[in-house]
Amino acid sequence: MSSDENNVEDKPNLATEEYWNDTYNVELNNFKNFGDTGAEWFGHTIGQKMIKCIQSHCKISLEDPILDVGCGNALLLIQLAKLGFTNLYGIDYSAPAIKLANSIVEDQKIEHITLKEFNFLTDDVKSLSTFALVLDKGTYDVISMNDENNEKRNIYKKNIINLLQQKGKLLIISCNWTQLELNEQFNDSFQIIHIIPTPSFQFGGAVGNTLSATLYEKL
């Protein structure tokens, strides 16, 4: 077996529930032993930009329902709760992630956050009610892995549409899809409300962004 084949086998598969369970079990132990709440996916700066976008462009009240799909440790929801939002929900298919999130919420005495273990592709989204805003920070990226026939992406988009209220918003952050690619996948059901500036790079005379960050509104 070649070294390249070995490297492929050694790479973690982020598309598996096992990977995320292992990851969040480590973070759960770190929180229990050291009080470490874990990392913010894509970093703290992106989380702050998302919050600024919500406050400036979403036109929602503090009471409107907000759902974080793939909430992980729920740090984004906790920040929103501290700003006065009172109708916050988080789902994740990783049981250790939800256990960690609940532990942090309880430790920080945060109110108005409901967390649930939930598989967004296989569980019935009708059990979740509807939302004025859905947040996605990397979950669509994970869902897109090993999805050559677009089956998982189609389920994701259908479920997002069903979850959103009339004129509901989707704020999605991606490191795997360019802005153009995201628009091609969502423009039949959504319109762009705002694009969050993200760090750029230049390679071979072309300029690109390390992340795509877009606020969409359901048509």
From TrEMBL:
Protein name in the entry: Protein-lysine N-methyltransferase LOC112692394
One record GO biological process: methylation
Keyword match Cell inner membrane: no
Organism: Sipha flava
Highest taxon in the source lineage: Eukaryota
Function as written in the Swiss-Prot or TrEMBL entry: S-adenosyl-L-methionine-dependent protein-lysine N-methyltransferase that methylates elongation factor 1-alpha.
Family designation: Belongs to the class I-like SAM-binding methyltransferase superfamily. EFM4 family.
Molecular function via GO: protein-lysine N-methyltransferase activity
One Pfam family per UniProt: Methyltransf_31
Main location: cytoplasm
InterPro entries: Efm4/METTL10, Methyltranfer_dom, SAM-dependent_MTases_sf
Subcellular location: Cytoplasm
Protein EC: 2.1.1.-
Organism lineage: Eukaryota, Metazoa, Ecdysozoa, Arthropoda, Hexapoda
Key words of the record: Cytoplasm, Methyltransferase, S-adenosyl-L-methionine, Transferase
Domain Methyltransferase stretches: 64-192
Any single Gene Ontology cellular-component annotation: cytoplasm
